[in-house]
């Protein structure tokens, strides 16, 4: 390796004096570098001195009100990350109690930071979420009173406007212990028993507008959901399954997604029969979007109850209804040799006839089964929606090597849709796909019942001769 390569070993040869001079030079125009160097100097004097400087910086960040544009966001993220690193990596090993307070103070500045930065990319939020995870290691080593910590946690979750404290109860569970968790539960229950504030001084017009915007029971429902979430988090960390389930109303338990969640929770406690009862008690006609979770829970309960035949039957039924690949794989795994081959062939037949061709095509790509995908495209090309370019484009790419006709048919559907609907923003992609069709034409000896490339191109020119912007891209 060259001695001029920038690495630790080569830089050490420069010596402390030259490196110090270089650092002074490069930090002259950088506030970030200066700030980092000061923090390192503080750490050299001890964790307490470094903690003092970090606390000052956090106060400064909290007080700052200027908007951070996209040009300065990267610097802000770096600054925030540096403060977390100082707390977690340098202060915590020596002073965990001080580090705990500093990390708590850091999370508390999240709202003021979010209010003055556009975090559509999520990088600022990532810093705070990663920082929060640091409590799992620091909190058990810090000297904390469980009762005071319970109050601290409650005040945090009660004012969790940006979700900056999401997951704090689980992170603090070990440190809170049974006494602290009991105190936290009491605080939540006291809040639940406290009547909602009644803004009697508001004008009637304000009441009317609020009722239109929120509904008459909005505040009460929001409070009830918040209380339920808190109590369920406490129940989860204490392993109290019954307390967790008790937070759901009878109406909640009728929902298929909640019934599935409850069943899986009971299953982990070897209570499969109770889980099955909840699944059977759920509404069988609604919440179709929750079918996957319900099916998974139902199959898991059947397996736990050693009702393998019923589990297999439900796996096949679920596959035929939804083309759930995981259920098909699990179904095939339990079949004897040769029977699995026959079952997979039955599955292919069903896929070719499935009501939703897009679902069937997606299944074939993910399985993968490109031969069935090609047969599907050839048999039902007229049903394909050319607007689904997000499915058809990768499908065509996957098929082009071994099944070029199927790939060409998919590209044609995309082209036809773009031109037929005059989607000029897609003309560039359509022109590329037409070029792909031309490239594969040399590999296709017989198009069968479908038009050749020359015939398709002639039809395209006749139907869309006036779409000059498209033809310009083709040329």
Describe the 3D structure.
The chain is mainly alpha-helical and 475 residues long. Among the domains are: 24-143; 148-196 and 203-247, no CATH class; 359-475, no CATH class. The protein has 28 helices and no strands. The chain has helices at residues 8-12, 16-26, 31-45, 47-63, 70-91, 96-108, 110-114, 123-133, 135-138, 146-158, 168-193, 204-214, 218-238, 241-246, 250-253, 256-267, 272-281, 291-304, 308-322, 325-333, 339-353, 357-366, 370-380, 389-399, 404-420, 427-441, 453-463, 468-474. Helix 18 runs antiparallel to helix 19. The radius of gyration is 31 Å and the shape is extended.
List the helices and strands and how they pair.
Elements: H1 8-12, H2 16-26, H3 31-45, H4 47-63, H5 70-91, H6 96-108, H7 110-114, H8 123-133, H9 135-138, H10 146-158, H11 168-193, H12 204-214, H13 218-238, H14 241-246, H15 250-253, H16 256-267, H17 272-281, H18 291-304, H19 308-322, H20 325-333, H21 339-353, H22 357-366, H23 370-380, H24 389-399, H25 404-420, H26 427-441, H27 453-463, H28 468-474
Round the mean pLDDT to the nearest integer and report it.
90
- Secondary structure: helix percent: over 70%
The secondary-structure element order is HHHHHHHHHHHHHHHHHHHHHHHHHHHH
Report the principal-axis shape. extended
Low-confidence stretches: none
Question: Nutshell version of this structure?
Answer:
It contains 28 helices and no strands. The protein has 475 residues and is mostly helical.
């Amino acid at each position: 390796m060259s001695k001029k390569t920038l690495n630790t070993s080569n830089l050490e040869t420069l010596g402390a004096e030259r490196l110090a001079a270089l650092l002074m030079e490069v930090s002259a125009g950088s506030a970030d570098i200066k700030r980092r160097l000061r923090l390192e100097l503080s750490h050299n004097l001890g964790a307490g001195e470094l903690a003092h400087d970090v606390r000052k910086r956090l106060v400064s960040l909290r007080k700052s009100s200027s908007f951070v544009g996209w040009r300065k966001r990267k610097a802000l993220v770096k600054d925030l990350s540096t403060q977390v690193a100082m707390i977690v990596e340098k202060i915590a090993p020596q002073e965990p109690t001080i580090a705990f307070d500093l990390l708590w103070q850091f999370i508390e500045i999240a709202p003021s930071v979010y209010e003055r930065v556009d975090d559509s990319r999520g990088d600022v939020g990532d810093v705070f979420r990663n920082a929060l995870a640091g409590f799992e290691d620091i909190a058990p080593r810090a000297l904390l009173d469980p009762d005071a910590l319970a109050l601290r946690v409650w005040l945090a979750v009660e004012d969790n406007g940006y979700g900056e404290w999401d997951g704090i109860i689980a992170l603090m569970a070990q440190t809170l212990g049974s006494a602290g968790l009991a105190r936290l539960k009491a605080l939540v229950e006291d809040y639940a028993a406290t009547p909602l504030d009644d803004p009697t001084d508001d004008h009637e017009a304000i009441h009317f507008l609020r009722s239109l915007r929120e509904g008459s029971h909005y505040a009460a429902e929001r409070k009830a959901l918040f209380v339920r979430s808190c109590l369920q988090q406490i129940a989860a960390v204490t392993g109290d399954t019954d307390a967790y389930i008790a937070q759901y109303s009878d109406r909640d338990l009728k929902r298929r997604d909640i019934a599935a969640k409850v069943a899986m929770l009971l299953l982990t406690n070897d209570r499969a029969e109770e889980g099955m009862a909840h699944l059977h008690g759920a509404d069988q006609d609604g919440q179709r979007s929750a079918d996957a979770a319900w099916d998974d829970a139902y199959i898991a309960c059947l397996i736990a109850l050693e009702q393998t035949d019923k589990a297999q039957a439900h796996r096949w039924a679920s596959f035929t209804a939804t083309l759930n690949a995981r259920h098909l794989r699990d179904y095939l795994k339990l079949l004897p040799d040769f029977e699995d081959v026959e079952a997979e062939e039955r599955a292919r037949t069903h896929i070719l006839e499935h009501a939703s061709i897009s679902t069937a095509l997606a299944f074939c790509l993910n399985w993968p089964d490109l031969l069935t995908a090609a047969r599907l495209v050839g048999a039902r090309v007229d049903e394909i929606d050319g607007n689904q370019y997000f499915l058809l484009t990768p499908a065509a790419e996957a098929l082009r090597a071994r099944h070029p006709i199927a790939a060409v048919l998919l590209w044609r559907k995309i082209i036809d849709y773009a031109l037929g609907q005059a989607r000029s923003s897609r003309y560039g992609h359509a022109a590329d796909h037409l070029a792909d069709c031309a490239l594969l034409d040399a590999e296709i000896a017989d198009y069968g019942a479908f038009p050749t490339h020359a015939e398709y191109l002639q039809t395209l020119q006749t139907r869309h001769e006036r779409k000059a912007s498209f033809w310009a891209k083709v040329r």
